Amino acid sequence: MAITYVGAGTSDATNGGTPPAPTLPAGLAVNDLMVAFFYSRESTDGTVSISAGWTQIYNDRTAGGLLAAWYRLFQNGDAAPTFTLGGHVGGNSGDTAIASIAAWRGINTSTPLDAQGTIATNVSQQNIGAITGISLGADDAVIVLGGKKDDWSAVDTLTGDGLSWVEIEQKSSIAGADAGLIWDYAINGGSPVTVTSKTFVVTGGASATGKGVIFSINVQPIVALAGSSAGVATAAGAASIRRSLAATVTGVSTVASSISIARSLAAAAAGLGTVAGAVSIRRGVAAISAGVATAVGALTVTGGGASVAMAGSSAGVATVSCAAAITRGLAGSSAGVASVRMATYAQRIFKDNYEPNPSCPWDEKDRAKWAVEYKGDDWALRQQANIIDSQ
Questions:
Q1: pLDDT over 90 percentage in the chain
Q2: Per DSSP, what are the bridge partners of residue 38?
Q3: Fewer CB within 10 A of the terminal residue: the chain, N end or C end?
């Protein structure tokens, strides 16, 4: 499951020691990752804390202000957290404090956070940064927090590193002594990437000290091999097994020595005993086949021609072996076919008036059997009399 952005609630800015009261984002679902971001211009003895149940990510006070962040997995009945301030100067010139809450879905609920960068404090200047970069894992999301001890008219959205950056919110306030809060995020693709140092480019306001930090959140893992499957015993030696391989499959015993198995290999197949030694098996191979006992040593079983309808509506096909090419209609509507052996071009037995193929080394008994079952004419009867009865 990929990470998606849920949204942000309504932020709040206060001054004079009054705690901000931001709201939760709309549309939250159980286990969405909520991140609460707080910034104030307090840089001497101020403190901030949050309601119980939130896990602290950062809480750092320096000359660049007080920056803090926490996370929590949303649960039904959750209300917006309460912030508690200490040491913030009161009065009209008091310390401005700002807080905002945003949320993401598709997060690793066991380990929500991945890389946690180091908070960077900048000297008095127009922009916020540079903020130290991090290494971003495949499919993870990166979040950049910034704060400045002054207000502004605008802040540019971040760019770079091949990522599509999105602004969560920028909010500045002239209540009390001025301050501003800004945060952006980006969701990575399928390969790890280095997030280089970032600078928030600020328009308006005056030069002032500030600070920022970068961290990342983990995508929900793809180790859901047997997510809703019963009786999946073993998946051994598999270099790559996608998350929904056995999502709805019951009774799959073993998937062994597979280099690559695509996600819908056994999507609706019940009772598939073994798929062993397969270099490549495409998604439709067992899509609607029931009771296929064994497909062993298949170099390639593709989604078209050879395999999709091989047992499309056939029941009780016990074995298909030594077959270099088997066409769609081989057992299309046949029940109880016990064995198709050594059929280099088995389709010709059916397509070309059911005549046995001389290039395929069947014995005479097999030839007679197919003649009796499919030819149904005098030639078949002669073969039955001359060959089968003589054995």
A1: 50
A2: 68, 99
A3: C
